[in-house]
Structures are given as C-alpha cells and as structure tokens.
Amino acid sequence: MIPLWWYLGLSSLLFTIGAVGVFIKRNAITIFLCIELMLNAVNLSLVAMSSYFGDIGGQLFVFIVMTVAAAEAAVGLAIIISIFRNRESLNVDEADTLRF
Amino acid sequence: MGEYIVTIVTLLPLVGAIYLAVIGRGENTTENDLKWTALVFSLATFILSLSLAIRFVPGGGSQFQTDVEWITAFKLGIRYHVGVDGLSLWLVLLTTLLVPLALLSSWNSIHKRQREFLISMLALETGMIGVFVSMDLFLFYLYWEVMLVPMYLLIGIWGGERRIYAAIKFVIYTVVGSLLMLAGIIAIYYAHGQATANYTFDIVKITEDIRGGALSLTPATQSLMFWAFGLAFFIKVPLFPFHTWLPDAHVEAPTAGSVLLAGVLLKMGTYGLMRFNLPFFPDAARQWAPFICFLAVIGIIYGALVAMVQPDLKKLVAYSSVSHLGFVVLGIFSFTDKGMQGALYQMLNHGISTGALFVIVGMIYDRRHTRLIAEFGGLANVMPVYSTLFLIVTLSSIALPLLNGFVGEFLVLIGTYTSTVLPQAKLFASLAALGMILSAVYMLWMYQRVIYGKVTNPANLKLADLNLREKVVLAPMILLIFVMGVYPNLFLARSKQAVQDISAPYNPGAVATPRAGVMNETEEK
Amino acid sequence: MNAAHNETLLAIIILAPLAGAAILGLFGKRMSERLIGLIACSTVAISAIISFYVFFKHRVELRDGAKFFDYLFTWIQVGNFRADFALVLDSLSAIYILFVTFVAFWIHVFATGYMRGDKGYWRFFAYLNLFMFSMLTLVLADNFLLMFVGWEGVGLCSYLLIGYYFNEGYANDAAKKAFVVNRIGDFGFAIGLMLLFWHSGSIFYFNDPARGISGAFNWAMNQAADPFTASAIFAGGLTTIAVLMFVGATGKSAQIPLYVWLPDAMAGPTPVSALIHAATMVTAGVYMVSRASSIYTKAPTAMFIVAIVGAATALFAATIGLGQWDIKKVLAYSTISQLGYMFLACGVGAFTAGIFHVFTHAFFKALLFLGSGSVILGVHHEQDMRRMGGLKKYMPITFWTMWAGWLAISGIPIFAGFFSKDEILYRTFIAQGIPDVWAKVLWVVGAITALMTAIYMTRLMVVTFLGKERIPTAHEEAHAHAHPDESHQAVTPPGVGPDEHEHHGGPPRESPRVMTVPLIVLAIGAVFAGFLGIPKGLSDVLTGGKVPNYFERFLEPSIAHVGAAPHAAAETAPAATESAEHSGAAESPTKELLLTLLSIAIAVGGIGIGLAWFKRNPLWQPPRLLEQKYHVDEAYDAAIVQPIKVGSTNVLWRIIDQQYIDGFVNGMGTFAKIIGGLLRFLQTGLARSYVAIVVLGALVLIYYFIR
C-alpha cells in the first residue's frame, strides 16, 4: 500500500507546476493547459483522500470536477479561438480591452 | 377551487402576462386585442377577488388559507402560506379594482411597446396582491422584490423626460430599505427558531409566539429589528424625510403607473408596519412611537405646504400623498383601535381618491400634454362633466364629511387624541388637524386655477369633455367615494377583529375597565 | 316625561331636499326652468310642511322637554366610539327647522324669479337644495359628529354658491376664502369635539336608552363648574372644550377674527346671500353654542369670551357697515354685527334671547337681502348705492317691504327686531356670573351698536330709495361696465350669468310677482314674529303679565342655566324652569321697562340722525378707514398668507426638499461613483495579475485556517 503522502506530494507538485505555469506563461493555450493540470492535481488528491477515508463522496466530487473541466474546456477553447480570430495572437497580455 | 382561491387571484394576472408574452406574435394581432386581453384578465381577477369579500367572515381571522411546504431543503421551513385577513382583505380588493381602471385610463396614451406595457402591469398586479396575501416572510419578501421590477420598467420606459433618473432613484430608495428588511427577516427567523426550536418563516406562527410570550426579544434587539423592518416601510410610505423619491417617480411615471404607485404601492409600507412592526416589536414600537409620530406630523404639514406651491399637477398630488400618508402612520402609532381602523380606512381612501386624482390629471395630460397648472384655467366652461367629477374627488381628498376621506381622517385624529400609550398624543392630534386646513387650501387653490375663471389659454378652448371610456373609469371610484363616506361600517366591520388583535396588546385593561359612557357594541353583524 | 320618543317623519325633512338636489344635479340640465323651480321649491315645501306638522303635533311634549329621535343607521362604530346617523327633535331644533324651512321656501320662490334666464339655473337650485339638506342635518343631528357633517356641508354649499359665477376671479377667490376660513374654525371645533369625547366618552347630545347611548351633556351637567379664571382656558377641561368649539362658531358665524369671509361672500347671487349668509347658515354658530349650553354654563370664562367677542364684533362690523357703498356689503356687515349681538346674548347666559334674535333676524335680514336683490335686478345689476336713489316711485312694493325690515332691524317697537334686541340688551345689563362693570360695559357697547345700526340702515334706505335719481345714462353705464372691479357688479359674461340683454336699458322697474310675494310674506314675518317672545317686563306693564313669553318658555327645556345645580336642567325640566325664574332675582319690571324705553329712544334717535343727515348729504364720504374696512384683509395677507406661500416655496421646497434631502440622496450616488472610480484601477487587464490576487487570497485563507 502506497502511503497517502505520496499521492498528496504528487498532487501538490502537479498543482504547483500548474500554478507557476499560469503565472509565467503568456500563451493562452499553455495557460489553459496549466489550469487543467491544477484541476487534475486536485482530482488526484480527492481520489486519494476518498480511498483513505473510505468515503465515496470524494470520488463523486471528481466526477463533478471532470464534468466542469470538460465544459470549461469547450467554452475556454471557443473563447481562445475567437480571441485569436480578432487579434491574430494568443498573448494574453494583449487582450486587455476590459482594462480601466 | 375553494381554498386555492387566493392563489388563483394572485397568479391569474401573471398567467395573463405570460399569455400576452407568448400569443399572437404574428402580424394579425392588433394592439386592441392585446389591450382587451389584459383588461379581461384583470377584470376576471377583480371578480374573483370580489368573492373573497363576499365570503369573508368578519372576526374570523385569516381565511381562505393555503399552507403547503415549499422549499424543504436544509429544513429552512419555507412554506407557501397565503391567506386573507381583515387587514389585507380590502387592500387586495383595492389592488384588483385599480388595475383594470388603470389599464382603462391609459387605453390610448401608451404609444410604444404596448405589449410589454400590459405585461408589466399584470406582473405588477401579481406582485402587489402577493405582498398582501403572503403569510410567510420569505414569500412576502419575494413578492415585495418582484413587484419592484415591473414598476421600474413602467417608470423607466413609459415615463416622462427624466424617467431614468426617477426610476433609478425609486429602485435605489426601495432596495436600500428592503435589504435591511431582509436582514431583519433573517434575524427574526433565527431568533424565533432559537427560542422555540421551530425554524419557520410563518408570519402567523411568529406573531402568535410573540403574543403568547414564547419568543421575547430584549428591547435593544427589538429596536434594531424594528428599524430594519421599519426603514423599508417608512421609505415606501413615504415618511418624511424619506419622501423625495415620490414626487420624481410620480411625475415621471405614466398615468397607470402613478395610479398604482399612489393607490397600492404606498400602502405596502403602512401595511407592513401593521403586519410586522407592531405585532413583532411591541416594546420598540412603543419606545419609538413619539419620534415616528413627530415625523408623521411634520410630514402632514410639510407635505401640505410644499404641495401648495407646486406648479405641476402631478407633483402637487404627490406631495399631498406625503401629507395623507402621514395621517396613516400617525393612526397606526396611536396604538388605539380607532386610530388603526382610521389608518386602514385612510389607506383605502387614499387609494381611491388619489388614484382618481391621477386619472383625472392623466385625462387632461392626454389632451394637452402638459401638467403645469398655469397652462390651464376655465376648464369648467369647456369640460363641465370633467369639472364636476374633479370637484367630487377634490372634496374627497380634503375630507368632506359623507365622503370617504372624512371617516378615515377623523378616526385617525380621534384615535390619536384619545391614545393612552402615545405621549403628547393630544398635541400630535392637534397639529395633525392643521392638515385639515392646509389640504383645503392647496386642493381648492389648485382646483380654482385649473377649473374656474375664464378660459385664458386658447389651447384650452376646444378641449373635448369626457368620453364614455373615461366616465367608466371614474364612475366606480366616485361611487366608492360616496359609499365609503356614508356607510363605512360595511368596511370597518370586516377589519375590526384584525385591528383589535394588533391594538389589544398595547392597551391592556382597556376592555376590562370601560370608561364612563362607553357604548354597547351592538353592531355585530 | 323626559322620555325619548320616535318620530320617523324627521328623516323626510332632510331627505326631501337631498332627493331634490340629486334629481336636479343628475337630470336638471335637460329640464325646463319651470320644472326645475317646481322641484326645488316643492322639496323644500315638503320639508317645511312636515316641520310644521311635527312641531304642532308634539308642541306640548316638546315644551315639557321631550325628545323625539329618528335613528337611521349607525354611521361609524369603532371600539367605544360611535356616531349614528340619527336625528333628534327637541324644542331648540323644532324652532330652528320651523323658520329655516319657512324662510328657505320663500327664498327659493324668490330665486326662481331672480335667476330666470341664467344658464346654470339647474346647478343653482341643485346647490340650494343640497344646502337645505346640510342645514337641516346640522340642526336635527343628534350627535356632534353628524352636526359636523351638516356644518361642513353648509360650508361646501356656501363655497359652491359664492363661486357660482365661476368665470369671475373675485367670486372664486371669495369662495375659496370662505371655505378656508371656515376650515380654520372647524379645526377648533374638531379638537373641541375630540376633547369632549376624551372626557365624556360620547359625542351624542342626550341619553337614548333604546340605543344604549349616554349623552355628553349628561356628563357635562354632572361636572362642577370651572372657575372663572384665564388659566381655565388651557386646563383641558370644560372651558377648553367650550372655547375650542367657539372657535368653530367664529368661523361659521363670522365673528372676530374670522369674519373676513362673509363680506366677500356677497359675490354669490343675492338669494344665496339671503338664505345662507343672513338667515340660516351663519347662525349655525349660535345654534351650536346654544345646543351646547350645558357645557358653556359650566365654563364661565368661555362665556365671558363669547360675550366679549360678540360685543366687539357687533360694534366693529357696525362701524364698517357705515362706510360701505355696495348695498349688499352694508347688509353683510350688518349681518356680522347682528350675529355679534346673538353671541353677546349667549355669552351673558341669555341663550333664549340669542335664539330669539336668530329667529327674528332670519325674517328681517332675509327680507332686506331679497329686497336688495330686487333693487339690484330693478336697476340692471347695479350694486353701488351711489348710482341708485329715488327708487321709491319705481319699486313701491320693494320699498315698503324693505321699510318694514328697516324698522325691524333698527328696533322700533312692535317690529320683530325690537323685542329680541331689547331682550338681549336687558339681559346683558343684568348679567350675572361676569363682573358687574363688564356687564355695564357690554351693555354700553350693545347700545352704541344699536344706535349705529339704526343710522347705517337709515342711510341705506335713504340713499337707495329717497332723494334724487342718480341712475347713470346709457353712456355712463357703458363706462361703468368697463370697470367691473370698481362697480362690483355680479354680471357675468355671456354663457354663465343672467342674460344681460334682457335686463339692460330702460328705467328701473318693479320686480315680477314671483319675487314680490316672498318679500311681502317675509315683511309680515318681520313685523309680527316678535310677538312670540314679548319680554316679561313689557308684558307685565302692558297686559298685566297675561301674555307669557312663548318663545322662552318653549325653549326652556333645551337650554341650561348658569349656576343650575348639577343634573337639574335636563332631567327635570319644570324644576329647571322654576329655578330659572328664581335665579333671576335681579330682574325687576321697572328696570326692564326703563331700559326698554331707553332702547326705543336709541332706535328712534338713530333713525332721526340718519334721516336728518343723509337726506341732505346722501353722498357723504365716510372716513376712508371705514370704507377700507380697517385694512384687515391686507393685514391678514401680509402677516399670514404671504409668509406661508413664500416660506413654502423658497424654504421648504427649494431648500429643504431639493437641496438638503435630495442633495443627500444624490450625494450618496456621487459617493458611490467616486468609490467605484477609485476601485476600477484594480482592473489592470492582465490575466496574470488577477491570478496573483486570487492566489494571494487563497494563501491568506489557508493561513487563517491552519494558523
């Protein structure tokens, strides 16, 4: 049996990679992938915890997160595509129309 | 249908609104069809609501109740509980009567988005009736907020030149109050649940528990909650100094909107005070009564004085509402059965009289597209029927005996004067009676400038007198003005029990030790 | 003996005119003048006939203090407050309905002739009938609130009828003024009423066991009398009630300081002035004070105020009457002055004398007004006496009937006014309960007023009927019509007023029979009505006391007496009569006879002075101050009306409402805008900075939870 902290360690590692990616990358696609990475990091910890506590609720939550992630992927990619059509660029720093 | 009658009356206008929204999007639907549809729905509502009055048992408490579980999640105790008691019966009828009249009164004066206008009116009606019949705080709040939206649209879309300003002002004023009320609702819900281990929003239950002593709040808590609820209602009434939204809203709203605004919406404030503030927070109400009566008296005199110098007819009527509603608040906070009966009666009177005044102003606005008093004069020469009806409504508004206004105003005054709970009651009543003089001044002066004299403005020479539709609009109101003035017991007998329930806790022993010369209560029909 | 009876006919007395008003108001527009006149007069005739019938049917019981109730329905009932729509006939209301319906009927008849050809004929008679309903309700009401209904109702009809010529600015102003000034009085009345209810728990006059009602007067009669001090006015007891109610009376009955509306009220058609502003409505205040005599007699301070105000008004108005040129204005001030007399009587406790003067005054003042109406019509709507003169030969019937009215008001023996006026002066002279000096002062004021009354009435008669004709020629006439304000004519433009062409041009002429017959009937009343109440002293001397004072004896049970023991007056009427006669210990026939001779001398002297002076100088210019009515209207305007108007506009509306309150509200809006303006700089537009803030927030939360 692999102890719980291995899972949690991997999960936080993945989450940190995702978070740092969101911070430093400018390409919208990359940022998007990083977000997905963070979500899955959380999924991993949820599954691990669920199994550890013997509570099925955590796994249920994972399903919800996956559904949301799928919806988000669809919407997010659509937005990214329409931004690209307008600006010919995927640099998020250039999409600042809503700035004050 | 039996016990669902209240629900049907409440929701029928909404059904009408939805029906209007979906039907006849094709080309062969004329505006006339839409107008008739809306009118039929509102008339059907009125006729159904008449059965409430007919079948109502005086002294029978809350009747025609429907009480079912609604939102069960988290054991919140939100129920769909509606019913009609002596307090709300006549207000419901006032609403259902005024809506068809308001629709008729603006039959030809809406020139854009006719369909949406009718939908707003019907949705507004559901909101207004809902407020009066809700016996559940959550439901009450829901309707209270729902009603805001169509009113906002009515002012903002079909209003006059400064309509946006007026609409936003109206909404912000009201929302500030109602958010506080939401806090108050949650607070009393929580306090009641803590004390009785029964978490419920049910108004009847909470009232009973407070009356029975199962829930007793400290005076400090009561004060806080009193103002949380009260501010919402005082703004709606409107009590001086929360009144400045009213003139703007009235002036900018279309005629139908003004009629309902003055006729019904203002009464929600005073209704709320009688429904919640007095039964829920007796100590706080007693403590704050002198201050509130002080504001009410200021409102009476101030409203009258400012009304006197208004150049715009609608503004004049709007400020006169501030004055008249001051009487209502004074009557409520006199804590006597006479004062409260008078206040309740005055609400109905004001709904009828001021509603009729707005209709009347709307009629000449339709003809001349101005409301400035200076533009008129000598209308008696060209519009005799109009002038006569206008005179009757004017007299009703200045409380001439045997017309409706007198009964309410006098009961409020004598109730306040004889109040044993309110300090300085005699002084308050005497100052309020000054309003009697001032109302005669501003109303008669206005009437004189509009109706009497020679026709000085050539634009007025060819004005047509009232047509059949306009007479039909005014006829029921004029009839009610007389009936309510001559035989008020018809109305008072049905509200008696509800008012006594509210006033009794404030006057312990009043029944036990009758004063010298107390009269037998023989009129118990 | 004092039991309550039922009399269901009473309702018809008030409902007949109401029905007339309703019929005329709804359908009158399409009726012929003849039909309208018929309906209006017949409904009043029904009231009059029933009034006479019930009076004579019950006169014995009424004299013994019986009361007849007619309960229609309960009007308002809330808790312990109850007001019924119920009527009561006692000796006071019985006398009132008699002369009100009688005089009103003849004025209606007169008006059918006077208003002929007027476009608003139906409207006029509808208002007039509505007035009759209100007036009779006022008189017959069995509680104060129903009296208030009539009280305000007559005010409304007065408003409508003063403003009858609604195209004329001055008529509308006068109407509004009348209503508002009356409302000021009603304010006092209403508060007095509430105070009475607060004390007694009832607004009914009398007990009615059948309905389980106890009356306010019973409570009042069981109270100890208030002390005769100024502080009693503010003590909140009986005196306060009485004073507040008297405020109402000053409004309705045109006493200082609220008399200002009555002279302006002459803007209405002349029959209205005769009916409302002379014979009936304006005496409502006297009626109310007499009705509440059981309250007033317990409040000596209030009585004193009533007497002082009455006497002051009598003198004040008489002086103004001397300086007026408008024939109706003279009569208006004369009415105010005579009303002052009536209050003087009430104030010194002689309520019966006051009511008697109301009674006689109704005849001769209605007569004088109708006569002036006849004159005005005869000289083609001219009201300025300077343009009359020598009318005697053109209008003999009008002259001779007015002649009777003139002698009556001046107080010449055998004419009606003599008896009542003499009675009042005598009662004032021997008044008890007020300092003796004051009694004498009041008497002197009353006597001077009597002298002046005789003088200005003689002036009116002389300037109008005698001397040279000063009727302008057609050319001058046109000139006069160019200045309507100057001549105060009641002529209205075509379409509303009487048809000018019909009346214009030609020499003055006598009025038609429909107008002269009422004059003659009223003249007979003005001559003989006084014999119903011959003062005791006179009766003793002339007839050996065989002819009693019918009037006083009849009213006795309805009137309380100063100093009467609690519970005595109403419960046991005959005993009260006895005690009243005993209490008048100061009365002595010789003194009364002396005073009577003195008042005859005053009347004759006044007429003599008047004849001597005005026959020679008919156009004598009265002092400016009198002609300008002491500038009271202007003073009120400057002191009250303008400050309120200006204050409301500039301070309340523009500053408090628009600057402070709206300023605060709009300030909140601006404040929110400023905050938002600052916060929007957080919106950098860089997605990564948003993320940074989110992560920062998350870290803070995590720290908070695992701390």
Helix count of chain B equals: 20
Radius of gyration of chain C: 30 Å
Number of strands of chain C: 3
Structural class of chain C: mainly alpha
Could you explain how this protein is built, in words?
The complex is a heterotrimer of chains A (100), B (525) and C (707). With 100 residues, chain A is an all-alpha fold. Chain A has three helices and no strands. Chain A is elongated. The mean pLDDT of chain A is 89. Chain B has 525 residues and is mainly alpha-helical. Helix content of chain B is 71%, strand content 3%. In chain B, a hairpin with a 6-residue loop joins strand 1 and strand 2. The two termini of chain B are 27 Å apart. With 707 residues, chain C is mainly alpha-helical. Chain C is globular and about 120 Å long. About 7% of the residues of chain C have low confidence. Chain C has 31 helices and three strands. At the A-C interface, helix 1 of A face helix 31 of C.
Provide a concise account of the structure shown.
The complex is a heterotrimer of chains A (100), B (525) and C (707). Chain B is mostly helical and 525 residues long.
Labels describing this entry:
heterotrimer, A: 100 residues, mainly alpha, B: 525 residues, two-stranded antiparallel sheet, 2 strands, 71% helix, globular, disordered C terminus
How would the blueprint of this fold be written?
The complex is a heterotrimer of chains A (100), B (525) and C (707).
Chain A: H1 4-24, H2 28-53, H3 57-87
Chain B: H1 5-22, H2 31-55, E1 63-71, E2 78-84, H3 86-105, H4 114-133, H5 137-146, H6 148-158, H7 163-196, H8 203-212, H9 219-236, H10 245-252, H11 255-280, H12 282-308, H13 313-332, H14 337-368, H15 379-382, H16 384-397, H17 404-417, H18 425-451, H19 468-486, H20 489-503
Chain C: E1 4-6, H1 10-27, H2 33-57, H3 59-63, E2 67-78, E3 81-89, H4 91-114, H5 121-140, H6 144-162, H7 169-200, H8 216-221, H9 238-252, H10 261-264, H11 270-279, H12 284-291, H13 293-296, H14 300-322, H15 327-347, H16 351-378, H17 396-410, H18 416-429, H19 436-465, H20 474-482, H21 484-487, H22 500-503, H23 513-528, H24 536-543, H25 550-555, H26 568-571, H27 573-583, H28 589-616, H29 624-627, H30 632-679, H31 687-706
Parallel strand pairs in C: 1-2
Antiparallel strand pairs in C: 2-3
